[in-house]
Design goal:
mainly alpha; 2 domains
């Protein structure tokens, strides 16, 4: 196709991705507000909330990651104009997400033995248990929200997620203030109040999404809530088979950074602080390719559902062009602005020097990271998830983490490089992931597609 074809497709991807980017940034901002407000109340509450989040985050990613499969399936059925299959997928995905929510709730309500095993201080343990018990009341709402968000995005409607995130972000601040500090007649709960604010926001998220998705005219007449079906194992198993590897891959990608932080903790506060600054900035930048990749999954799935595999593959090529342009831009900005950005986080010269060194490796891995995200997004649209999971586990946990430990903590290859060793290994691991997922996509995209019938 001519260049204007790429421009036109990139515009469509940007149209879908922009609301998702705003929503992800607002979600990140909510967790930042939680950290700031609990920290100003007491250091123990800040620590307890941080410990609680380290347990809650993987659990929440498990639910939301599982429902990525539903987005892909709805996009396919939307392209095929099969409204009945869309309704079946949404309702059965909702049953599945609620079923997964139950063990998550039980874990959060009975986290005491885990905290004891982790040898968490007794004072922090009490606050953490209260914080997670409060969040547990919002888990069913999160499950429902995730299912309806997948429906909305699969239909090509990404603004509802942005709108609900904006409303919840604005409400989260006064809720935190009232419940943490005991204002406006509310009890003073400290870090536990932060958990209750989160639970309330999860329910508001779900209610707002119900309101949006109930507008049939906005979703081409699809009424997901009518003629509610009993659990149907044939559909649930298909969502589970596709979604479980995706969810595990999401958790594996997110948890490797937490593992690196734990492995760096014995090296001192300066090393940990420098790593945390680089990690925070990297996480914010990651929102851009994440939003673009979700848009790619939606567009590719839509055209596959229409039986237009040629255009679906063109969307993939356009996505790679967009990812390459974004990665070059972010890499350049990281190198140009790293001194200024690091200065926002710390005035300690040793921390600044270490963080700026890590920014170089962060800039270097932008290209392979964003290209592998694009390849993975396209594979999800092709409903290929088992092999990508194995490739991701091998690249991250089989290559990057062991190599990082050797470079950072041992003198087997050279003098120990501390945090820099792990970031060098991340470049190697992400480059390998990019090559492996790209090769897998090349194979999968050449096969004829058979659309699953729900």
């Amino acid at each position: 196709m001519r260049n204007n074809g790429y421009v036109s497709e990139l515009r469509q991807l940007i149209r879908l991705a922009s609301p998702l980017l705003v929503a992800h940034l607002l979600t990140t901002a909510i967790s930042t507000v939680d950290t700031l407000m609990s920290g100003r109340y007491h250091a123990n509450d800040l620590a307890a909330v941080a410990i609680g989040n380290s347990i809650w985050l993987p659990a929440s990613l498990l639910i939301s990651g599982l429902l990525i499969a539903s987005t892909s399936m709805v996009a396919r059925f939307h392209g095929a104009r099969d409204q009945g299959a869309i309704v079946t997928t949404v309702q059965q995905s909702t049953w599945l997400s609620l079923a997964v929510a139950l063990p998550v709730m039980l874990l959060l309500l009975n986290v005491g033995p885990l905290l004891e095993w982790l040898q968490v201080d007794g004072k922090l343990r009490t606050i953490t248990r209260g914080y997670l018990s409060a969040i547990a009341t919002g888990v069913p709402a999160m499950a429902l929200f995730s299912s309806l968000r997948s429906f909305s995005e699969g239909m090509g409607r990404t603004r509802p997620f942005m709108s609900s995130s904006c409303f919840v972000f604005l409400l989260n601040i006064p809720l935190n203030y009232a419940l943490i500090y005991g204002r406006w007649g509310m009890p003073e709960l400290g870090g536990v109040g932060c958990g209750w604010a989160t639970a309330i926001c999860l329910w508001l998220h779900a209610l707002i999404m119900i309101g949006f998705t109930s507008r049939c005219e906005y979703y081409e007449g699809v009424a997901w809530y009518r003629h509610w079906q009993r659990p149907r194992w044939s559909t649930i198993s298909h969502v589970l088979q596709l979604g479980a590897p995706i969810a595990l891959a999401v958790v594996a990608e997110a948890s490797i950074f937490s593992t690196i932080a734990l492995l760096l903790s014995p090296l001192g506060a300066t090393v940990v602080a420098g790593h945390q600054i680089a990690l925070t900035v990297s996480h914010i930048i990651f929102m851009i390719p994440l939003a673009l990749s979700q848009a790619i999954t939606i567009r590719v799935g839509h055209f596959l559902g229409r039986g237009d595999q040629g255009h679906a593959n063109f969307v993939v090529r356009s996505g790679f062009v967009g990812a390459a342009l974004v990665s070059l831009s972010t890499a350049s900005l990281i190198l140009l602005l790293r001194e200024t950005i690091v200065g926002w986080f710390s005035t300690d010269h040793a921390v600044q020097a270490l963080a700026m060194g890590l920014f170089f490796w962060m800039a270097l891995y932008q290209i392979p990271d964003q290209l592998q995200i694009t390849a993975n997004a396209a594979l999800r649209a092709y409903q290929d998830s088992h092999t990508p999971l194995l490739l991701i586990l091998f690249s991250y946990w089989g290559v990057a983490l062991p190599l990082g430990f050797v470079l950072a903590r041992t003198d087997w290859l050279a003098e120990p490089l501390a945090a820099e060793g792990f970031w060098m290994a991340l470049v190697a691991g992400l480059s390998m992931t990019c090559l492996l997922l790209g090769s897998r996509l090349f194979v999968v995209a050449r096969r004829p597609v058979h659309t699953y019938q729900g």
